[in-house]
Each structure stands twice: as structure tokens, then as C-alpha cells.
């Protein structure tokens, strides 16, 4: 199922961007807005399933979703008092 077959061209905009993640660890990926869902390790063969599940049925496809990791300020190399937020930030592994 393509965007054309499903008549989604007026609702979905496909943009080419620079890399979102690490191509060696995450493979080809895509970012879906407005939800901000990051899919990784996808192939051309996975696209029809993603279109059907995410765009048509509104379901996030967890098996392709990039894993997020909670990273502390210390892990980010931020010292306290340098204007960084306290606690931890949630970052993608890319």
C-alpha cells in the first residue's frame, strides 16, 4: 500500500533530510510528525505496513520504533551550574 494507492498524498508530506540517526547502528530511518515517532532499521518492504498501521490506523509500529534511552546530565558531560537542566533528559539512541 503506497501513499498514492491510499490517497494520502494530500495529507502526508515526504521530505528528504540529512541523517536522523546512526546508519550503521539504526539503518534507514524515518521520523513521523506531529507525533515525533522515530522508526529505525526499516526497508522499502516495510513501508506498506507502516503506511497501513501508522497513517491509516493510527497505531505506532513498536517493532520498528527507535529505542529511547534516558541519559543523565553527567552522561551528557554537563557540569552542574552551567545552565543545564537538572535531572535527566530523554534522548534517542542516534
Protein architecture, described:
By secondary structure, this protein is an alpha+beta fold. The chain has a domain at 23-67. It has helices at residues 23-26, 47-56; strands spanning 30-32, 37-39, 68-72, 88-92. The strands form two sheets. It has a two-stranded antiparallel ribbon. A two-stranded antiparallel ribbon has the order 3-4. It is elongated, with a radius of gyration of 17 Å.
Brief account:
15% of the residues lie in helices and 17% in strands.
* Distance between the amino and carboxyl termini: 29 Å
- pLDDT under 50 segments (min length 5)? 83-94
Q: What's the helical proportion of residues?
A: 10-25%
Give the helix/strand class: alpha+beta
